[in-house]
Amino acid sequence: MPRIRFLQLSTVQITTRVCFRDFRSFSSRVSILENEDLLQQIPLQDVRNWCFIAHIDHGKSSLSSRILELTGNLGTEAQEIAWKADQEEGIKGTTVNRKNKERIELLDTLSVEKERGITVKASTASMLYRHPSAVGPTGTLLVNMFDLPGHVDFGREVSRTLHFVQGAVLLLDAAQGIQAQTWSVHEKVQTLPQPPHLLVALTKVDLGSARPLHVALTVAEWLKGIDPDSILYTSARQRKGIRELLDAVCEQVPPPQLLEDDVGDDSETGIMRAVVVDSWYDVSRGGVQCLVQIRAGKIEEGDRISMVTGSPDADEATSKTVNTQSYPVQEVGMLLPHSKRTGLLRRGQMGYVRFGLKDPRQAIPGTILVWSSHVNKDMVLPQISSDLASFKSVLYATVHPEQADDGGFEALCNAVDRLALNDTGLEVQKTSSMGKTSESGGPFLGPGLRVGFQGLLHADVFRQRLKDEFGIEALVTPPKVPYTIQFLPDKNRKNMEPYTQIVEDLSEWPDFSQKFKVLEPIVDVRIIARANEDTGPVLDLLTRKRATEIETQPLDEEKWLFTAKVPWAGVVTDFDDQLKTLTAGYGSLDTSTLNPDSLAVADVHKVEIMLNGEAVEPLSFVCHRDSMQSEGRAVCKKLQEVLPRQQFVIVIQAKAAGRIIASERVKAYRKDVLTKSGKTVGGGDQTRKMKLLEKQKKGKKRLQEYSENKVTLSQAAFNSVISRTS
C-alpha cells in the first residue's frame, strides 16, 4: 500500500500514486551525474523551474539536500539510501549518523551560513527525475531547484528568483506554523505580475511538538483557497515525504513558455537568448560566473556573445539596448549544486557561463545574452521586471578598521570591494578624510567607509564575513536611517524660503538653534505571537516604539497577528531582540520595504556622545524628546562599562538641545605615590603628602590633554548605542 501524505485521498488519487510507484521502480532511477546524455533529449515541456520559500530556520536547505539525494546529485550511494528510505517509508527513529545527516553545507557554502545555520545567498541545482508527466521520449524531467534565504534582510534574493520560476513551495514548520516572514514571502509571490504556482508543505513533522493537522487547517484558513488535503507532510531528518513533494512539483508546476518567435523543438536553428538570473565573482577562477536560463537556442564554449538589456516598460517586446562589446564564451556548465562543465546549454536548461567579466555588476539580473552576430536582428526578448535591480539600502553605517595603522584602511577597502562583488545589496562609498563626519571617524576611529545595508542582520553578517574570509576585525557603527529635514523661514539666518534636505549622516544634522521640523520614515510591522502569554508585552513594546494604527487579528486559538506602523529608527536598533526576549523566542517579526514617501512629523533630537569634551559622531543617535534623557543616560552607563580604563580620566557625556543631559566617568589608573619601598613618604607631614598628590594630579591632567585622542573604541561601544533601550 503506498504511503499517504495528504489528510485525505480519493480513490483516483491513490490509484495514480500506485501507478507512479510502478513506473518509477528502484531500477528506473536516473541521475544527472550518470545520465548526462539525456539532457540533449529533454524538450522545454519537460522542464520544471521552482523554489522553496519560507520563514528563517524552517528547514528549506535540509529538505533541498534530501531532494538532491533522491535525484542522485550527491552520488550513487546517497541515492540508494534515499530510495531505500522512501520504499521503507522513511528512516525509523530519530538517530542521526553520518549517512543520515542532512548535507546542507552543499547549499549553504559560506562560513557564516554554516555557523549561524541560515541561508544568506540563494543557491541552485539542476536534477534529472523520471516521472509520468514527461512528454519527451526519455520520460525524464529536468528539474531546476532554488534554495532561498528566509530572513527579510535577504529578501532581494527571494524577489529576484521569483521572477525566474514557474512554481514555489511555501514551507512551514509543523511545530511553529505561520510566522511573520511566512506571510511576507507569500505576499511577494502574490504581488508578481505572473505569480508562480504555489504549493504548500509542512516539514519537521517527526518532532514531538509537531501539530501538522492543526497547522494545515490554520494555513488553509489563512490562504483562503488552499485545500488542507493538498498540503504535503515532510521530514528531512527521517526522509519522509520527499518523493511525494517532488512528485507534486512535477505534476503541478507548469513548464516555461516558448518565446513568440521561437522555432519550437529544433533549438539548433533558433536565435539564442539567455537571461542572467544571478552573477558572482569566483575567486578560484579569477572571473565572474553568470547563472543563466536559456530561453531560446543554445550557447556553447567558443561562441561570441553580447549583452542586451530589454525595456520592460516598452510597448514592443523587441525594444532593446545593446552593449556593442563582444565576449568569447570561455566555459559553460551546470550547477548540481557544484559546478559541472558541460560545454553546452540548450533551451530550457539553466547553468553557468563565463565570458571574461571582472565585475558582476556588468551583468545584473535580467540582462539578456545573445550571439554577437544576431544583436541587430529583430527578435522577441524575454520580458523582465523593472524592479529586479531597484533595491536600495534601508539603513547606513560606517565601517572602520580596528587597527587603522600599517595599511589597515587600505586592507579594509580591498576586502569590502571583494565582498561587494558577491553582495550586490551593499552600497559602498569611500572617504579617507580625517574630518569630523561619521564616515571619517574623527580622531577616535580614523578613516572609514560608508556602507548601505538591507537590515541589521545584513550588517552583522557583513562584519562576520570580513573576519572569516579576510581576517579583518572591523568596527561597524550604529545604523543610521535617512531623515527628511524641512527648514523653515528664519530671518536671523537670512533664510526666507523653506527648503528640504535628506540627512543620513548625523554630522549634517542642523543645529538646535535653527528652525526646522523632522520627518522620519515609517514602516509597516507585522508580528505573530502567542495569544495569551504575549499580548501584553507585545502591545507594550509597540507603544514604547511609538507605534500607531495598532491592530490585532486572531490567527487561531493560540496565535495572534499584530500589525502597526512604527518609526524605522526604532525597528533597526533592537526591536527584534526585545521581541524575542519578551515572547521567550515565540514571537516573529516582519517589516515592509522602506518607502521613501512614507514619512511622519516627529519631535526627535540628535543626541551627541562626547568623550573628554570631544564629540564622537559615530556614537551619536536620534531619539524622541520624551526618551532623550533616559536613552542618553543608558548609553553613558554602558560606555562606562565597556571602555577600557586609561592612565587618565575619561569623561563620558550625552548632549542634546544644547545642554548636557547625562554624564559618567571612567576612573583612571592611579599609582600610590605616598608609598615608596613599603614606607610612607613624609611620615606624618601632611604638607609633603599633599604636594605629591598635587604633582600627580597635574601630571594626569597634562596626560589627558595630550592623550585624549587615544581612547580605544571597540565594537561593544557601538553595540551600547544599538541596545540603548534594552
Automatic annotation (TrEMBL):
Its main location: plastid. Residues 45-257 form the Tr-type G domain. InterPro entries: EF-4 (IPR006297), EFG_III/V (IPR035647), EFG_V-like (IPR000640), G_TR_CS (IPR031157), LepA_C_sf (IPR038363), LepA_CTD (IPR013842), P-loop_NTPase (IPR027417), T_Tr_GTP-bd_dom (IPR000795). It holds the Pfam family GTP_EFTU. GO terms for molecular function: GTP binding; GTPase activity; mitochondrial ribosome binding. It comes from the Eukaryota. GO terms for biological process: positive regulation of translation. GO terms for cellular component: chloroplast; mitochondrion. It is found in: Plastid, Chloroplast. The keyword Hydrolase applies. Keywords: GTP-binding, Hydrolase, Membrane, Mitochondrion, Mitochondrion inner membrane, Nucleotide-binding. Belongs to the TRAFAC class translation factor GTPase superfamily. Classic translation factor GTPase family. LepA subfamily. PANTHER family: TRANSLATION FACTOR GUF1, MITOCHONDRIAL, TRANSLATION FACTOR GUF1-RELATED. This is Tr-type G domain-containing protein. It comes from Fistulifera solaris (Oleaginous diatom).
